[in-house]
Amino acid sequence: MSKESLADTSTSSSVQLRNNKNKRFFKKNLLPYWLLLPTISILAVLTIFPLAYSIYVSFQRFNTFGEAVGFHGVNNYADVISSITFWNSLGITLLYTAGVVAVEMVLGLALALMVSKENKVMSYLRWILIIPMMLSPLVVGIVFRLMLNADFGIVNYMLTSIGLPAVDFLGNSLTAFLSIMLVDVWQWTPMCFLIALAGLQSLPQDPYEAARLDGASKWQILRDITIPLLKPVLIVALVIRTMDALRMFDQVFVLTQGGPGRATEVISFLMYRAAMRFSDFGFATAGLFMVLVVTILLSLIMIKLLNRTEKTGGY
Amino acid sequence: MQVRYENINKKFGNVHVLKNLHLTVNDGEFLVLLGPSGCGKSTALRMLAGLENPTSGEIYIGGQPVTDMDPKDRDISMVFQSYALYPHMSVFENITYPLKIRKVPKAERKKKADDIAEILEIGDLLKRKPKELSGGQRQRVALGRSLIRQPNVFLMDEPLSNLDAKLRVHMRGEIKRLHSELGITSVYVTHDQTEAMTMADRIAIMEGGHLQQLASPDEIYHQPANRYVGGFIGSPAMNSVKGRLNVKTASLDFGTFTIPIDQEWQEILEKRLSGQDIYLGIRPENVRVATKPAENSIKGEVYVVEPLGKEVITIIRAGGHTIVAIVEPDLPLKMNQKVWLTFDEQKLHMFDGKTEEKVV
Question: Where's the ABC transmembrane type-1 domain (chain A) (predicted)?
Answer without folding.
Answer: 90-302
